[in-house]
Amino acid sequence: MRTPRLRLTRVLAAGVAAGLVLAGCGGGSDDGSGDTPSSVSQADIDKAMQTPTELTFWSWVPNIDKEIALFQKKYPAIKVKLVNAGQGEPQYTKLRTALKAGSGAPDVVQIEFQYIPTFTITGDLLDLRPYGAEALKDQFVDWTWGQVTGADGQVWAIPQDTGPMGMLYRQDIFDKYGIKPPATWDEFAAAARTLHTADPNVYLTNLAGNQNGAWMGLLWQAGARPFKTDGDQITVSVNDEASKKLAGYWGGLAKEGVIATDADFTDQWFQGLNRGKYATWLTAAWGPVFLSSSAKDTSGKWRAAPLPQWTAGANEAGNWGGSTSAVVKATKNPIAAAKFAEFLNTDPESTMMFATEQFLFPATKSLLSNPAFTDQKPAFYGGQQVNQVFAGISDTVATDFQWPPFLDQTVNDWDETVGKSLADRTDTVAALDQWQERITTYAKNQGFTVK
Amino acid sequence: MTTERLPGKRSPLLTLAMLAFLVYFLLPLFWLVVASTKTTGELFSSFGLWFADDFSLPGNIRDVFAAENGVYGRWLLNTVVYAVVSAGGAALLAALGGYGFAKFRFRGNNALFGVVLGSIMVPSTALAIPTYLVFSKIGLVNTPWAIILPSLVNPFGLYLMRVYAEDAVPDGLIEAARIDGAGEFRIFWQVAMRLLAPGFVTVLLFTLVATWNNYFLPLIMLNNPSLYPVTVGLANWAAQASMGGGGSGGNVLPLVVTGSLLSIVPLVIAFLMLQRYWQSGLGAGGVKQ
Amino acid sequence: MSTVTAAVPRRRRVASRRAAAGYLFVAPFLVVFVAMLVVPLAYAGYLSLFREQLIGGTTFAGLDNYTRALTDDRLLGGVARVGAFFAIQVPIMLGLALFFALALDSGALWLSRVLRLGIFVPYAVPSVVAALMWGYLYGPDFGPIAQLFDKVGWDAPNLLGADLMLGSLANVVTWEFTGYNMIILYAALRAVPTELYEAAAVDGAGAWRIAWSIKIPALRPALMLTLIFSVIGSFQLFNEPQLLQRLAPNVIDSAYTPNLYAYSLAFTSQDVNYAAAVSFLLGIVIVAVSYTVQLAANRRRS
Question: Residues of the signal sequence (chain A) (predicted)?
């Protein structure tokens, strides 16, 4: 009996030893800041772009191979291998495990604005300044550049598309109940009551309890700046005055029962949009095209307007979604990868194609003022120049909004506190404190000094 | 063991009750068949448990195989390869090991068997993450081996084969073969395997199901959609159906539904065709303990 | 024994050669077992002793992760939830499986082959597909169940709501695995010698009496097997809640079941070390519950 057990222990010990070795390899990523990088010369760039290279690119944008083809036509030596590793969170999960494992990560990756700090805190993104990215600044809408720039001026990604928030509304329902598009949130609340009283099956809007993105956009508009990271110090104030104003407002409407709080992007929600259960959708600039393909039955009935304002006559907006191309620091071909990210999002043909083929809402100033884009009159919106509306909104998005360096955790915690309070129609203001508490605990556990 | 019992007095009441339960077990599958014949619009507008006016099944099947350059066919093929290789390997390892544990006395026999048996209780999802980390170091992540290798271990299969071998392979037979001068491995292949066949098929089938249904492991191991098994692919489509895919994904839902239907057909057929084997094989595991 | 005359040393040599053959037979399984199960498990155990922070990197933490887990309300809540799930779902599922097996074995059914296979078929359906199907059937506004209620004129219950979710999940699992358990029990019943029944029948015992006092006791080992598998299945619950989460994100949170929590800790919270500790503790809970179940059953027998 003795021998095999001993042998087993030895095997176990070997396993642990292997683990030690693995752990040794896995850790030790530097934080990427500090040293100011020196520029790469044009000669180096030319050389790299003529060397046969294969890049791996993760993106979920449909038919993005068309833009890739443009790049490969210009740089025939470089071959881009496209992988769709999932949209949003599933992709980030995969990316993170691949980064942690040290193999299988792409060279260039699609990342939404809000997730950039989550990947820079672990030192996984490449600062693009040495590859001439700073010179691109003026081409992009100001707030988008703010979103991709680090504390010390690093350029972590190139903006691709954006999601300034506005309001899509059902003209026919508004007309039927004599409602005018609300200009302030007070008017909006009054309209919500009027509408729901007039027809108990219809709600002025749906604020989903699983959609942190929309909430953050509304927070952004309300003037809250809940996160600020400075090295290992982090400020968390998701329950400050502006946040409480927002929570009191929406929590109140939810409790009254005059708005819906269904989970969005579910079958039930799609049916709600199709059947006129919701008279407005507070959404981002990517929303109009999305809606026209997923609520086909309601074509011609929708219109677009800016979000209602907290103070009459103000002109504030927030952003929800939109994404960038970032280069993974571990790439073996940083020059080619950086130039690919640049080309995709600055080449006039490529950016135009994003706007007209995939209907991404542009991040470049030139496209947003290009009549070919802004003068489109989709029939779904009764011929209204919807792009024009959202291009106008894009100019009003504040530039200084920051995201926490562990976004998936804060989103998850939001779902289970604030989001849940909306869905359950309980006290949303109190839920803010729980959210604050959970983020603070997490940040401390992760070694941050929380202010 | 497969002879039917003599029919006693048949009971209409009991039969009726059982038929009611049968409806419960088949209804979701009936829904799946019905739903596969519908378009996205009809999925929501028509009554769920009956056919709509149009019969879109052929079109849906064509769409499933045409979507994303035929990736669904690739997923099915991947699943078949993963499942067949894993199941074959797992059943063979279990048969060898079960026979070894049952028919040979060696030091540590019971202790080793006890360790293996105890491992049945290890949560498999808990293992997936460390396995991922280990695999990534040796470059197995994002390859078919990442799915196949972990599926080769089937402790319950080993248990079943041991119990089965104890009963089904008489010691006298082995002894007789030895006296005839046959080597141990020849005895195994030529004498024991034939008797072990029902147990072997049972382990084969159940590992096949486990691998076919595997979701979590491929979910974290694979990044490349052309390596996905059909479960992960379908879950991906289901997520896409709700994301809407920025304007292009308006018709993903019928793909999910029809793809689901197509994915279960091969397994159901395998079970129906091999029922004689697995029913008796499973019995052995439950009789002894 | 035909080898009475064989010399002792020779027999010993034969025995050791046989033992070597035995090792050779079990070696392939054990090698894969160690590589695919023991090594990752040991690695998980090793990981669970460390703490990796976004700020500060990796440090040795001793048993901190374990003490944290034991006071983690979210984990304990999840364990309590799967405990409740086990207490409700498993008796129903095994009760049904037992009833079906006895009914099939009684010979009192028409169409018994059709019934047996029909009830078993859901086992061949991947849990991904099962969850997608049931999720759709549960749909509050358009699902067939809601449509039926609507036709009758009643308010449909929200099967994806907080109150009913655990029941809805239990239904999916019951649907998937009743047939599987039924087949195990049925196969075991077929192995009970018929003479036992015949003798009882001659004594005038009815079908129910025979089922109760002969068949069920004979099924004890098979029932135990199904019960242990159910313990493992319940406490490891993952696929079904993970897939229904998309339909009811505000009902199924990231700590709904312990396994879901471990997954979320590893992939959302980037806390692989704590996730490993949670998985380890979950394994211990499963072993403990399985053991208790066996003890209780054995005590009742004696």
Answer: 1-23
Domain end marker among C60, C78, C98: C60
B199–chain A nearest CA distance, Å: 28
The whole-number pLDDT of residue B213 equals 86
* Confidence class for position B279, pLDDT limits 50, 70, 90: low
Same domain (yes/no): A230, A251: yes
Does a structural domain hold residue C2?
A: no
Q: Which of B31, B127, B268 sits opposite C133 (nearest CB)?
A: B31
Distance set, CA C13 to CA A3, B172, B173, C289 (Å): 20, 20, 21, 45
pLDDT at A26 over 80: no
Strand runs labelled E in chain C: 50-53, 57-60
In degrees and rounded to multiples of 5, residue A295 shows phi and psi of -130, 55
Contact C267 A122 (CB under 8 A): no
- Does one domain contain both C208 and C99? yes
Are B94 and B201 in contact by the 8 Å Cβ rule? The answer is no
State whether A250 and A394 are in the same domain.
yes
- The pLDDT value recorded for residue A418 is 96
- Report A:264-303 residues touching B (Cβ under 8 A): 265-267, 270-271, 274, 286, 289-290, 292-294, 296
* Domains along chain B with CATH numbers: 70-287 (1.10.3720.10)
Taking CB atoms and an 8 Å limit, are A210 and C250 in contact across chains?
yes
Q: Could you give the CA distance from residue A46 to residue A28 in angstroms, rounded to a whole number?
A: 33
Touching C (3+ Cβ pairs <8 A), the chains are A, B
Kindly state whether residues C87 and C138 are assigned to the same domain.
yes
Residue B150 CA to residue A308 CA, distance in Å, equals: 55
Same domain, A332 and A360: yes
Banded pLDDT at C196 (limits 50, 70, 90): confident
